[in-house]
Design brief:
With 110 residues, the protein is an all-alpha fold. The protein contains three helices and no strands. The protein has a domain of 76 residues.
């Protein structure tokens, strides 16, 4: 639950504060590194939403298995693999966004 609360808050506040800071510093929102950051942010979000659903389902499966005194069902493994695979592009995307925000590289407009 804490993960969801903190992550959901960051998901909303990060673009709001990021855009405000960019404009205050004088960057145009059409600056290529900023555009790329926003596109990556959207892609990371597309990975994150199913991950949240998968986490909740895995939690429910684990609770159910515990109450029944049974091992985790195969579906748990399927969800875990999907969760793991979605985590990699999201993590790499966040690293690239971090680099773009710190380095502010000069990129040619596409």
């Amino acid at each position: 639950m804490a993960d969801m609360v903190f992550t959901a808050t960051a998901v909303v506040m990060q673009p709001v504060t990021g855009i405000a800071l960019s404009l205050m510093v004088g960057f145009r929102l059409s600056t290529p590194w900023l555009v790329l950051s926003m596109v990556l942010y959207g892609l990371v979000g597309c990975c994150w939403l199913p991950v949240v659903w998968l986490q909740m389902r895995m939690r429910d499966l684990a609770i159910d298995a515990t109450h029944r005194g049974q091992p985790l069902p195969r579906l748990y493994d399927t969800y875990y693999r999907r969760w793991f695979m979605l985590g990699w592009p999201a993590f790499i995307g966040v690293l690239i966004i971090f680099y773009l925000m710190v380095a502010k590289p000069v990129l040619s407009a596409v």
